[in-house]
Design brief:
The chain is of the alpha/beta class. The chain is built from 12 helices and 12 strands. The protein has a 7-stranded parallel β-sheet with strand order 8-7-6-9-10-11-12, sandwiched between helices. It has a 5-stranded parallel β-sheet with strand order 2-1-3-4-5, with helices on both faces. α5 packs across α8.
């Protein structure tokens, strides 16, 4: 008789435990299993943080209790901490599946030492982030949040009329030169949408070859000089940290617009503020920041008439949560059937 697979679904208020359970139930229809649900508090760490696993350690006790109490060999989680302490306290644990694009909440060295496999859910939010990027770009180009605040927040139709002038009206995407820095799962989707709008799309990504949507530009400086709008889609690595700073912003066309829905540290925020103050950059739309949550003393808050700011929501949609649960459940299914894991690290 096949042994019952015991799973802990440690979800949160985004990837609900019930979503994980439902996806596992569909995946393991022919395999005996039990799922124990655990809802962890939110947020366990700064939104989208790429910091070390210790930042989520306030929930260690809850995870340990859930794993010990059920004798589970599999943990599926979104943000739950899988630290050295958790792994040491739960020797039955054999598989951890993280419902994120990377297992930043797992101590990978400790997992290897304890012979625990670690999987993740790549690509779950590419469509959502791409759509959000285009929305942020349109909002910045056409001053949509500022106009909304004047009418809905201040009740002033007359003040909003200032945007119906040549000087203060925004830019349209058709025929606009837009430069994409990075052409991965998100950047490629953004490029397709912008091409549909009629934008003159240019792409810089030294790691991507083959056909692209738009014009390939081989040097970042050239892309910046030719762009009225730039949108960032590069991975955060030691080489790309601070990729866009004062020198790079100065290369843009005067009055350019900057969009970052990728990773905050790709962009030098102080340099951006200076460019906004000087007018070299006329507007920016940011969903990610060098420090998250965004500190109350940030210079960005003094420039909100030229900014669209959101709290790292680009990858958040109902479809993302559902997709993440399905990808995680698929890995659990592979494990239960003795099949190779699709998205395993190491």
């Amino acid at each position: 008789m096949t042994e019952t697979l015991r799973v802990v679904a440690a979800g949160d208020h985004f990837v609900l435990p019930s979503l994980i359970t439902s996806a596992i139930s569909e995946e393991l229809r022919e395999h005996p299993f039990t799922v124990s649900e655990l809802t962890l508090g939110w947020p366990l760490e700064p939104f989208g943080s790429v910091a070390e696993v210790e930042e989520a350690s306030d929930a260690e006790g809850e995870v340990i209790d859930a794993l010990r109490g059920t004798g589970a060999t599999v943990l599926v989680t979104q943000m739950g901490p899988v630290t050295e302490r958790v792994l040491e306290a739960c020797p039955d644990l054999r598989l951890v599946v993280v419902c994120r694009g990377g297992p930043v909440n797992v101590n990978l060295d400790a997992a290897k030492t304890h012979d625990v496999r670690v999987c993740f859910a790549p690509g779950r939010n590419a469509a959502a982030t791409a759509e959000f990027t285009v929305g942020m770009m349109l909002a910045a180009l056409r001053r949509i949040p500022q106009a909304h605040e004047l009418l809905a927040g201040q009740g002033s139709w007359e003040a909003g009329a200032a945007y119906y002038t040549y000087e203060h009206s925004g830019l349209e995407l058709e025929d606009l030169p837009v430069g994409l820095v990075g052409y991965g799962a998100v950047g490629s989707r953004v490029a397709r949408v912008l091409c549909a709008f009629g934008a003159r799309v240019m792409v810089y990504d030294p790691y991507v070859h083959g056909e692209i949507h738009g014009l390939r530009v081989t040097a970042l400086d050239e892309l910046l000089r030719r762009s009225q709008v730039i949108t960032l889609h590069a991975r955060l690595t030691p080489e790309t940290r601070g990729l866009i700073g004062a020198r790079e912003l100065a290369l843009l066309r005067p009055g350019a617009v900057v969009v970052n829905v990728a990773r905050g540290p790709l962009l030098d925020e102080d340099a951006l503020c200076e460019a906004l103050e000087s007018g070299q950059v006329s507007a920016a739309a940011l969903d990610t920041y060098a420090r998250e949550p965004l500190p109350s003393a940030s210079r960005l808050f003094g420039l909100t008439d030229r900014l669209v700011l959101t709290p790292h929501l680009g990858g958040a949609s109902r479809a993302v949560a559902e997709k993440a649960a399905r990808i995680a459940a698929s890995e659990v299914g592979h494990w239960a059937r003795g099949e190779p894991l699709s998205h395993q690290l190491g």
